[in-house]
Amino acid sequence: MAGSTFDDRDGLIWYDGEMVEWRSANIHILSHALHYASSVFEGDRVYGGKIFKLTEHTERLINSGRILGFEIPYSVEEINAACIQCCEANNIVDGYVRPVAWRGSEMMGVSAQATKIHLAIAVWDWPSYFSPEARMKGIRLKTTEWRRPAPDTAPVHAKAAGLYMICTMSKHAAEAEGYDDALMLDWQGRVAECTGANIFFVMEDGKIHTPTPDCFLDGITRRSVIELAEKRGYDIIERRIMPEEIGAAEEVFVTGTAAEVTPVGAIDDHAFTVGEITRTLMADYDKLVGKSDVDAASAA
Fold this sequence. Notes:
Elements: E1 12-15, E2 18-21, H1 32-36, E3 39-41, E4 44-47, E5 50-51, H2 54-67, H3 76-89, E6 95-103, E7 117-125, H4 132-137, E8 139-148, H5 165-176, E9 181-186, E10 191-194, E11 198-202, E12 208-211, H6 220-231, E13 236-239, E14 251-256, E15 260-267, E16 270-271, H7 276-289, H8 293-299
Parallel strand pairs: 8-9, 8-15, 12-13
Antiparallel strand pairs: 1-2, 1-7, 3-6, 4-5, 4-6, 6-7, 9-10, 11-12, 11-14, 14-15, 15-16
């Protein structure tokens, strides 16, 4: 793809049922989504020409729209087919898929009952979310001051655009201090997640502990890695985890469509090693999604 920005590229984007030229896939400045964050999205990965857990992502996209009060005017099957068509049209073998649905410009104000619901799908080549060096040694996290909202204050179980505002702010602040990402607590001061990934702690008891997803997404990658861990015979404990427990962890890793399985080398002043359990689950996940043997070996 030519161009250095995401609006100036060669290629095709699926837009409301049609394949359109990349640079012409635009929305009006008065679209409701731009002003009031009435938008939901997904992030899928393509490995070897196959979209990993496509149907699960599509079902979550539709459900996210319903949580925000709108119905995406396409079925799971139609959206799946559009994602595949878009990958084929852009010759994406290993990359990223971004479906996004939003309210249009028919109304301007908080109310939006008469707005049209749009759906677009873009795909592009995308390397690992974190650098290979960071993925080998473990990324560095800094706890952010922004907290995940309580379940009765925001649509926390939707992959909604507005919920990522504090993620961007937190990640920028962490990167400005030399960290790779931010660790977010919840409204009660408990460990929640990173800005775009769920988090796991291998504690001194040898069990894998992870926060209960009561105010953030129960990630599709999160669930996949839990299944892989259970197949290995590892004990998984979902519970409330307090920040003062972090220092007792022996290994820490994060999971997400973009992050895959990535080890954590430090959180604030706490340092961790990339241990056996983390390496094993990294390799198991690479095998599950169909990454090449070379990629899997370098990750492990």
